[in-house]
Design a protein that fits this description.
Length: about 160
């Protein structure tokens, strides 16, 4: 337990240094260019603290859960014993032998793109600007298909 808390502390310190340039730019621009005090300074500072804790917990969660799971899945999907369940492993493996890996990578690329908050914001803005001619879901799915297929084509050379 203490090792996890120590790791969380190190990630928190790293997160502070990662967020610090953004904080400096925001407060510097507010003070030097706009030359007005930041309204609701207490709420802004509390919000930054929430952001720091949220990012730190998110990063630790990725490192402790998702990255090891992804590593395990990659090892399992590329294991020749998985590729050739019949036990007849050829001397030379071809890219086609790893089709499951490519399909999985394309699916992950598609799913993460559809869930990307920045893409959601852009899609909402595009719908507003286009007067509804471009739908939020239509744009998100189109971009996600492009990302998923791009990953597939990049890996397979097709």
């Amino acid at each position: 337990m203490s090792a996890l808390l120590l790791h969380l502390w190190h990630v928190m310190v790293g997160t502070i240094f990662d967020v610090l340039p953004i904080v400096i730019i925001i407060f510097g621009f507010q003070g030097l260019v706009i030359r007005k005090p930041i309204p609701n300074m207490k709420k802004v500072l509390v919000g930054f603290v929430y952001v720091l804790f949220g990012l730190a917990f998110f990063l630790v969660g990725l490192e402790e859960a998702l990255f090891p799971l992804g590593d395990l899945m990659a090892k399992q999907l590329t294991d020749p014993a998985f590729l050739y369940a019949d036990g007849k492993i050829p001397a030379i493996l071809r890219w086609e032998d790893y089709m499951w890996v490519y399909l999985f990578a394309a699916a992950i690329g598609f799913a993460t793109t559809v869930a990307e908050p920045a893409l959601i914001a852009v899609a909402i803005k595009a719908q507003d600007v286009s007067g509804g001619a471009i739908s939020v879901w239509g744009l998100r799915v189109a971009v996600a298909i492009g990302v998923g297929m791009g990953i597939h084509w990049e890996r397979t050379g097709l």
